[in-house]
Design a protein that fits this description.
heterotrimer; A mainly alpha (255); B alpha/beta (248); C mainly alpha (287); B: 248 residues; alpha/beta; Rossmann fold; C: 287 residues; mainly alpha; 14 helices; 0% strand
């Protein structure tokens, strides 16, 4: 795993040197500031609206960072031929994939935590504070970033940059609706179609399980610990599956 | 003599959609301990494909490649191999020092030893002054030297060099030749692919000639050239004659 | 070069696949794209091909406005929206609002065993997770935090200035629940400017002048404006406006005009005894 960590550090170093993260950072801070400063009908202390929109901005910007950083990892290594000296070293292909995922996840999580820090500062300035459910929400979101990074890295082993980014973002949007869409469809379909739909429901990861934003916004009580643990196991299972698929695909790849 | 690299009946093909291109048609060759083996052939002959299989970048359709008696691409072997790719590109945002540190760590070299090793290899390839210059600011020749530096960072027993002179000026070629000969003197086995025959002629002990995925000859350089020839264009003449004969 | 071309080709293929997936998902989610009408960008139709552009962009804007409008409802119910797995929990009798539904459906369940067999333990686990991760018990927004609804009314109208309901309901909340009369009038004036035929906004404006500011002249003006609207209006709405108009006239001392208004109410609902009583009372007071 030491080799994977070396690859991860390289991903982080590369990402820090690229402009896109800084552009996205400025964009998100600007958007959050606009949301914080916006005034509606001379009302003051609007926390829920600010929390909801800030969470939305942070979620999307972080996912864009994960997708932008993750999607280019394997194709760029191949196109720029940097992969050849690297793979001639004592580095397993699985370590390469895990390293790429780890690096993508860490840089995205770091950005997410910075955004959350800014959000919390703004929240304090509005007279609110940190709640237990907010911490749970941040934790689940970190799991979601790791899951999305694993999907992006898996796809980057056989897709081009643009195709990967499109599919990943599309899945990120649809991943929230899979459960509901399938559940609705199940009520009006035959046994065979129902079997197929339910299989899809089990196979595809539900990204909405990592989203506590509504409970945070509407100041609900914290979620029971068993739920957080189950979601954590759920994330670990899917991350392992995607990394395994990515590794198998990359192992079969002729460089 | 003890063979270090053994390639037996190696077949390989490329697929682009439904199109299939046969790259290697059952090549067999060996490189022995302490020698410089020149692997020569025209462009597209299958030199890089052979090297790619040796390093595990590609999978053969048939046959096998062995280094130190086990599968050439095994993890264990990679600790003993150094590789210089034909066109060497390195992370442009890193400096030679950071690149060598990263590769050195992959070889699990201890940090204190690694720092000394980096200074030593940078001195060997003449890049000491550019230690902290980002790769994007290095010239092509310097990049090629950096390529050689990363290939020897683990003090390998076998060096696989794919077109090491590509893109180098005459001075660069001379320096590269001296470095390779220096490594040979240290007892390293060098597998060296090139189509610059004059270079091969000057440093190789044995050569293998490959064309269209087939080995035409594998012999000691002086046996191929024969005693009747004396000047440096000799290998080139023989090579061209051999290729022409085969194709006609 | 060949490799690069093949890669580009593959990229195009994937983009097409992604587009196809998007269309499929739109079908699956039953997004009613056909009902989206261009609104905020109607001026685009002046340029060649603008009709299509405005339909597409208008769809995006009005669709966003609709989502923002739904937010107001979500806020009103402490973030509760429809659950995908609620029906599974209902059958298992888990959860707050599920419980009373469970009792309600109990009789029906006894006769229908199909659903009981339909869900397995994994379904139940998913449903329980979802139940715990999302707001699950409908609870009305605490009156002190009703101001939290207001940004969504404003944002809805920013995305779709023709969202009449957002102006009307927003105006009501501002004036009646938050006591911000001036802001309510300003907001609804903007709504009337953008929607001259939006009789609901004029009516709401009239009600604010009538009941909050006791400015019957202004109230009369807005009720009359609402009645002149070309928009389709059902007879209940019309009768309601006429009643308010009648009282606006009455409080200004124009009893005959007030009676005329109530007569119109009576023409719409001839059985309305209350209208008859009021007309009789006002007729007598006039004498």
């Amino acid at each position: 795993m030491r080799a994977a960590w070396i690859i991860a550090k390289n991903v982080i170093e590369e990402s820090i040197r690229k402009k896109e993260i800084y552009v996205l950072f400025i964009l998100s801070v600007a958007m959050m500031s606009v949301v914080a400063m916006a005034s509606f009908f001379s009302l003051t202390g609007l926390i829920k609206y600010f929390t909801e929109l800030s969470f939305l901005i942070i979620t999307y910007i972080t996912v864009i960072i994960a997708v932008v950083v993750g999607a280019r990892q394997v194709p760029t290594e191949l196109n720029s031929r940097t992969i050849y000296p690297l793979m001639a070293k004592p580095l397993k292909r699985s370590e390469f994939i895990i390293g790429k995922w780890l690096g993508t996840s860490l840089i995205s999580i770091f950005c997410f935590l910075v955004f959350e820090g800014i959000f919390i500062v703004l929240l304090f300035s509005k007279g609110s504070g940190i709640s237990c459910i907010l911490i749970q929400g941040i934790f689940l979101h970190i799991l979601q970033i790791m899951l999305i990074s694993s999907i992006v890295i898996c796809l980057s082993t056989f897709m081009t940059n643009a195709a990967n980014a499109t599919v990943s973002i599309l899945y990120f949007i649809l991943g929230y609706w899979i459960g509901k869409a399938i559940s609705d469809a199940l009520d009006n379909c035959g046994a065979f179609l129902a079997w197929i739909l339910r299989s899809i429901n089990y196979i595809l990861p539900h990204l909405d399980y990592f989203d506590l934003s509504k409970k945070i916004v509407h100041q609900w009580q914290p979620v029971p610990a068993w739920v957080i643990i189950t979601v954590m196991i759920y994330a670990v299972v899917y991350i392992s599956i995607f990394l395994l698929i990515g590794t198998l695909k990359f192992q079969r790849k002729q460089l | 003599m003890e063979p270090v690299i053994e390639i037996r009946n190696l077949h390989a093909e490329y697929r682009a959609g439904r199109e299939k291109t046969i790259a290697l048609k059952g090549i067999t060759l060996s490189a022995y301990k302490g020698e410089i083996f020149g692997f020569i052939g025209p462009n597209g002959a299958g030199k890089t494909t052979t090297i790619n299989i040796l390093l595990g970048f590609m999978y053969p359709t048939n046959g096998n490649a062995v280094i130190f008696g086990e599968k050439s691409s095994s993890l264990k072997n990679r600790f003993r191999i150094g590789y210089l790719p034909e066109i060497a590109y390195y992370y442009p945002f890193l400096t030679p020092f950071k690149i060598l540190t990263m590769y050195g760590k992959l070889f699990r070299i201890d940090k204190a030893i690694l720092n000394n090793r980096i200074d030593s290899v940078l001195a060997t390839v003449g890049l000491t002054e550019k230690k902290n210059t980002p790769v994007r600011n290095l010239s092509k020749g310097m990049s090629q030297r950096l390529g050689l530096a990363q290939a020897i960072i683990n003090d390998p027993e076998v060096l696989i060099l794919d077109e090491p002179n590509s893109g180098l000026d005459p001075i660069g070629k001379r320096e590269m030749r001296d470095i390779i000969l220096g490594l040979k003197n240290k007892g390293k086995t060098i597998f060296f692919s090139s189509h610059q025959l004059s270079e091969v002629e000057l440093i190789c002990d044995r050569v293998g000639i490959i064309d269209r995925g087939q080995i035409l000859k594998t012999e000691k350089l002086d046996q191929i050239v024969g005693k009747i020839h004396t000047k440096q264009t000799v290998l080139e003449d023989i090579f061209i004659r051999m290729i022409k004969d085969k194709r006609t | 070069m060949k490799g690069k071309e093949a890669q580009r080709h593959r990229g195009t293929e994937f983009l097409l696949c992604a587009f196809a997936t998007l269309c499929l998902c739109a079908l699956l989610l039953e997004i009613p794209l056909q009902f989206y009408h261009y609104s905020a960008v109607s001026s685009v139709s002046a340029i060649p091909g603008g009709e299509i552009i405005s339909k597409v962009l208008g769809g995006v804007f009005s669709g966003s406005a609709d989502l923002l409008w739904l937010k107001t409802d979500e806020y009103l119910h402490k973030g509760v929206t429809e659950h995908s797995h609620c029906h599974i929990l209902e059958e298992a009798g888990i959860g707050g609002h599920a419980q009373h539904k469970h009792e309600h459906n109990h009789k029906h369940k006894e006769t229908d065993h199909r659903h009981e067999l339909k869900y397995n333990r994994l379904d139940m686990l998913f449903a329980k997770l979802e139940y715990n991760l999302k707001p699950n018990i409908t609870e009305h927004l605490h009156s002190k935090r009703e101001d939290e609804l207001m940004p969504w009314f404003k944002l809805t109208t920013m995305f779709n200035p023709h969202h009449v309901r957002a102006y009307a309901v927003g105006g009501y909340w501002l004036a009646y629940r938050l006591g911000k009369i001036d802001e309510a009038i300003k907001f609804m004036k903007e709504g009337i400017e953008n929607n001259p035929d939006g009789y609901q906004i004029s009516t709401q404006m009239g009600i604010v002048y009538f009941s909050r500011l006791k400015n019957y002249k202004k109230a009369q003006y807005y009720f009359e404006k609402a009645l002149k609207s070309q928009a389709k209006m059902d007879e209940y709405d019309k009768a309601g406006i006429l009643r308010f108009l009648a009282f606006s006239h009455k409080f200004q001392g124009h009893t005959q005009k007030a009676i005329d208004c109530y007569k119109q109410v009576l023409s719409l609902f001839p059985e309305n005894k209350r209208a008859v009583q009021i007309i009789t009372r006002w007729e007598q007071s006039k004498e």
